[in-house]
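1st attempt posting a full record on here, be nice pls
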Amino acid sequence: MNFINKLSAAWTANNSLLCVGLDPDLAKLPAELRDLPDGITTFCTRIIDATADLACAFKPQIAYFAALGAEKQLEDICRYVRENYPHIPLILDAKRGDIGATATQYAREAFERYGADAVTVNPYMGEDSLDPYLAWKDRGVIILCRTSNPGGSDLQFLDTDGEPLYQRVARLVAEKWNKNGQCALVVGATFPEELAQVRAIVGDMPLLVPGIGAQGGDIAATVGAGQTANGMGMMISSSRAIIYAVPQAGEDFADAARRVAIETRDAINGHRSV
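the predicted structure (as tokens):
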């Protein structure tokens, strides 16, 4: 099953557009896990177990692991998802962008080493920098388009023959680069008007939408702008708000993560059209 089919099945099976991000910060881990050699693995797999029936995807951010020299733990976490929840897409959030020969190695890292179903990439260097990822026809290639950070406007709103650059990227992906039907776009929840414009350009193409939760994106506006006609089409990502949720009485960190994930999924579903 390819990435797009797996994602579509997960949307339906879990009745969820919520993508759970895995961004482990040692300083924020429970005290009892910080000094354990496999503390990051334990933390992330507990979060995965607590939210697997609520999520349409899991998205580990590679920088949080690489900074700690914890790539082996990331391998273990990715393997855990593949073995225990093979129906849930695994997205490696790496935002890679480099020339063809180097991109080939980054593609192998994502798809061979970590066994990801999809990877996030940066399109700044153009089509040939994406081709090594697109060659993996059963995997997803999720391309940065309109990002959720304020500084994204420095470049993404530059005029390109009468349209902003982010719209040109969306059009290139929809009309040229998505020849295998494997592409998706990153569009931030912090800019719902631009999200709606991207949706109009790309049709039913999946959108990875960061920016709710800790970044403050409005769920109602996000869903209204980005959903497809059947109420799907998005992976709405939340990381810190879920994985570092403050436990209430009788809860541990995984219980708290599950509670906030339920609240987030239900808030999203409350604004879906179907």
